[in-house]
Amino acid sequence: MSSNSSIVPCASGSVERWDHEADVVVVGFGCAGSCAAIEAAELGADVLVLERASGGGGTAANSGGLIYLGGGTPVQRESGFEDDTEEMYKFLMAACGPGVDADKIRVFCDGSLEQFRWLEEHGVPFKRTFYPEPGKEPPTDDCLVYSGGEEAWPFNEIARPAPRAHKPRAPGAAGGFLMQKLLTAASRTATKVLEDTRAERLITDGDGVVVGVVARQTGDLRCIRARRGVVLTAGGFISNREMTRRYAPQLARANWRVGTDGDDGSGILMGMGAGADAIRMEAGSVSIPIYPPKEMKKGVLVNGHGQRFINEDTYYGRIGQRALYEQDGRCWLIVDAETYLVNEVGMQAAVVEESFTELEAKLGLAEGSLVATMDLYNGHARRGVDPVFHKKAEMIVPLDEPPYGAIDCTLKGAVYAAFTLGGLRTRPSGEVLRPDGSVVEGLYAAGRTTSGVSAWGYASGVSLADGMLFGRLAARSAAARSKGSRG
Ligand SMILES: Cc1cc2nc3c(=O)[nH]c(=O)nc-3n(C[C@H](O)[C@H](O)[C@H](O)COP(=O)(O)OP(=O)(O)OC[C@H]3O[C@@H](n4cnc5c(N)ncnc54)[C@H](O)[C@@H]3O)c2cc1C
Fold first, then answer.
1. Which of 373, 375, 476 is nearest to 427 (CA)?
2. Which residue among 464, 466, 468 is best mutated to probe the pocket of ligand 1, counting the most ligand atoms within 8 A of its Cβ?
3. Which is nearest to 94 in space by CA: 147, 144, 162, 156?
4. How far is it, in rounded angstroms, from Cα 381 to Cα 415?
5. 42 Cβ below 6 A of ligand 1
6. What is the pLDDT of residues 293-320, one digit of tens each?
7. Are the C-beta atoms of residues 377 and 387 closer than 8 Å to each other?
8. Closest atom of ligand 1 to CA, residue 167
9. Residue 306 CB partners (closer than 8 Å, separation 6+)
10. Would the pTM count as exceeding 0.90?
11. How far apart are CA 25 and CA 51, in angstroms?
12. Pairing state of beta strands 144-145 and 67-68?
């Protein structure tokens, strides 16, 4: 079987013996899976988690730990930011499109304050502080950052800007800390975990209802019965090269895969095999870490035609997506002697010249193209405005101090960090849907195995946040399903 074909389920009639059984079987013990397990167990369900690695954590444990939460969390309020559910909803509807699932975004926003409380109640602490550098996780144990271009055009005109990425109280990247807390919370419930156990196929009955999972445990196949439901939380597919090339060819070009071996698409392929629809499979988060520091936004980004294509002060994930999908991975950040800085990841000017004419020639841009762009930009910048892409006034300065530099932001010269956003089509309740909109009975999913809040656009923190919230909702649905007599 090729590694991008859907995985045909096993017929329950061929199962000779159930090796294990539980009410709810959760596949994957990352952020979505751990929250699903805790929720189902706290509702009284008998829960079994299958995890292919030798311990829980998943990609979430390697992450920055930013969690997109809003609507007026205690951290936002105590750090002096006003936010409400409607403003969060308006922002996400605009920033996560096109093609958003409005019902999912509504549930995500309405559930955000409760999700914050739930995390604190389950041992994940948050300091009540703001960190002024946007984008990535603070190096300190500070909590709140802007992470999706909320304060940049056009979103600052669509919704009142508020920072919403919340990092648990640990210095630097906090994904490991977050997962340690969630795994501890899961261990306080009656949840059972089978590690080194890789789910390989779903098991369906004669009506196509999912009744279990075939898993490989240290070489041996095990049949595991799910009396109420199977919840797929097995991550995305950025580590499956063949699948990425087939479904998300642009992402396959990115040079840094934001994921672990577990992101092999197995959850999506098992779901598809049971009849599920997979949607937005071409979508992905793509970041070029141009900043911090935020002063880098004073530069001017130009494409392979020597023209601007975006406001430089927006989220670097938005810049990366546009650069990869729309500019063929060809762009440079133009700076002058006054604005030049080597950023946090060491991006430096690859070409330096005394004039824009020489710079455009060195970059192989059409004659006059960069010169015209910079004439227009500088003319407006002298008046402190950017009527073309609406960069904020504090990031606008004329670039007129030679020498001029071009920081290489091309696919060849810069980091393009990508992970997949497409996956199984689900309801906010976690029920998995077929292409005709009907439910695959007995099957639930969440996290990057599904297409979630981000249909296309992304903001840092959305993946962990929607994985955790929709993981809980999927578990609730599975736990509430009447015990199957099938299988
Ligand atoms: C460096 C880095 C920084 C990041 N920073 C952030 C951030 O700050 N904020 C944010 O929101 N996102 C961030 N992300 C992305 C985020 O970590 C993932 O998108 C998120 O963890 C997805 O959650 P999940 O529960 O769907 O998958 P995971 O957390 O990866 O969990 C999936 C689990 O399923 C297991 N599994 C897979 N297949 C099987 C199988 N067949 N059988 C059994 N088990 C299986 C895996 O081993 C894994 O444990 C970052 C990622 C990286 C790598």
1. 476
2. 464
3. 156
4. 29
5. no
6. 999 999 999 999 999 999 999 999 999 9
7. no
8. 8
9. 360, 363, 365, 366, 369, 370, 372, 373
10. yes
11. 11
12. unpaired
